[in-house]
Amino acid sequence: MTVVVREVRPEDEARWHKLWADYLAFYGVSLAPDITEATWRRVFDPASTIFMRVAEVDGEVRGFALCLTHEGTWIRELECYLEDLFVDESARGQGVGRALLDDLVSLCKTKGWARLYWHTEEGNATARKLYDSYIESDGLIRYRIKF
Ligand SMILES: CC(C)(COP(=O)(O)OP(=O)(O)OC[C@H]1O[C@@H](n2cnc3c(N)ncnc32)[C@H](O)[C@@H]1OP(=O)(O)O)[C@@H](O)C(=O)NCCC(=O)NCCS
Asked: 51 Cβ partners below 8 Å, 6+ apart?
């Protein structure tokens, strides 16, 4: 099994839509289609800070990481927020998620970004086992008001 992580390409659209739908289903979320379309468009828009890395397993896209960079008040350089990480159910447990995270760590170092961070649900034991192998949680709790 060969895992290759790379920048997303326009020809990945159909495959990504399927993975995105499975990701939303995993969270039990239904998003308005225009939001999904806007997310897809923004990863190719140079004015947007959103970007996507995809993992190909034996030539087929089986996972993705959607991220964005932003400024911070405690840092000089940008930092990178990993918003969405997903691996196709049939490809899990084979190092694809780790390959996507390793790729982001390298990318941050190459670009000179100050930090990489992400959130997960407290009860997402599978994801947390992977994340705990990189760094301990910083213990922050999120507050979010939706408008
Ligand atoms: C979390 C997720 C991305 C991990 O992807 P993955 O490709 O299965 O992960 P990997 O194969 O790289 O596993 C890495 C580590 O995670 C742990 N892990 C993976 N699958 C596991 C499982 N089924 N049970 C227990 N631990 C598991 C192992 O500790 C593994 O460590 P190892 O590399 O030493 O073997 C994937 O399970 C997923 O997409 N889940 C649904 C969406 C989700 O939860 N996204 C994260 C939201 S924050």
From this structure: 7, 8, 43, 66, 67, 68, 69
What are residue 6's DSSP bridge partners? 54
Ligand 1 close to Cβ of residue 81 (< 6 A) = no
Q: Which domains can be identified in the chain, with CATH numbers?
A: 3-132 (3.40.630.30)
Tell whether ligand 1 has an atom less than 6 A from the beta carbon of residue 87: yes
Q: For 31-68, how does the pLDDT look when each residue is reduced to its tens digit (9 = 90+)? A: 999 999 999 999 999 999 999 999 999 999 999 999 99
Ligand 1 closest atom vs CA 91: 7
Query: For ligand 1, what atom is nearest to the CA of residue 92?
Result: 8
Q: Is 3 in the pocket of ligand 1 (CB under 6 A)?
A: no
What is 43-108 written as a DSSP string? TT-TT--EEEEEEEETTEEEEEEEEEEE--SS-SS-EEEEEEEEE-GGGTTSSHHHHHHHHHHHHH
Average pLDDT over residues 114-118: 98
Ligand 1: residue whose CA is nearest its atom 19: 93
Report helix, strand or coil for 117. Answer: strand
